[in-house]
Amino acid sequence: MGPHFAEHEYQHVALILSLIHDLASYENASSSVLATETSLLRTLSFPSDPSRGYAKTLLVFARDDSSPADPSSSSSSSRTSQPSTHTSSPACAGMALYFPSYSTWRAAPGIYLEDLFIRPQYRGRGYGTALLRELAREVRRMGGARLEWSVLKWNEPSLRFYESEGIGAKRMDEWVGMRVDEAALEKLGEGESLLVQP
Questions:
Q1: Pairing between β-strand 92-103 and β-strand 56-61 as defined by DSSP bridges
Q2: pTM of the predicted structure, to 2 decimals
Q3: Active site residues
Q4: DSSP labels, 120-164
């Protein structure tokens, strides 16, 4: 049996928040997490109400530990909005949090992967690959052009994983990430737009 995916629903919000905290701890950024169950409920898009929210979360649930199969290689994966029933209490192995993107040059949609996190005890067992493959299928279903994400420079294990033959990601070294947030965002938004006349 292949991996079981669940598009998050309202009952998964506490689990998602727990995974966010686990990810922040891994990245040595626990104090930076401001997300709460309330803010996730307000900002995530749910399958039962897809018109609201801004981002989606795809959860992957662990196979029975007695099964040695690679979850990323199975074509019998399932995707629902409910946890799997093939075990009495499936454990969540990880998540992918993502939202739509767009390529102007290609005039095509895509997916931006904000966070991919696999719990330490499930790493090296194919769950990360399984999530990325499911997102790649989603890009293809929407007629999209690309799946993209950012990686911390110090995170060499993840960089090696993403650049492996199984994933095939390329570094975009010619690009520099830019961000405006906190006080700078407030200042930029409150500033007056002064147009220079020719």
A1: antiparallel
A2: 0.84
A3: 162
A4: GGGTTTTHHHHHHHHHHHHHHHTT--EEEE---TT-HHHHHHHHS
The backbone torsions φ and ψ at residue 158, rounded to the nearest 5 degrees and listed phi first, read -70, -40
Let me know how long the chain is.
Answer: 198
What residues have CB less than 8 Å from 192, skipping those under 6 apart? none
The mean pLDDT of the chain is 88
DSSP 8-state assignment for residue 63: P
Q: What is the mean pLDDT of residues 24-34?
A: 95
Using alpha carbons, select from 101, 71, 80, 83 the residue that is nearest to residue 1. Answer: 71
Reported as a single tens digit per residue, the pLDDT across 153-189 is 999 999 999 999 999 999 999 999 999 999 999 999 9
For 91, the token pair is: 């454990």
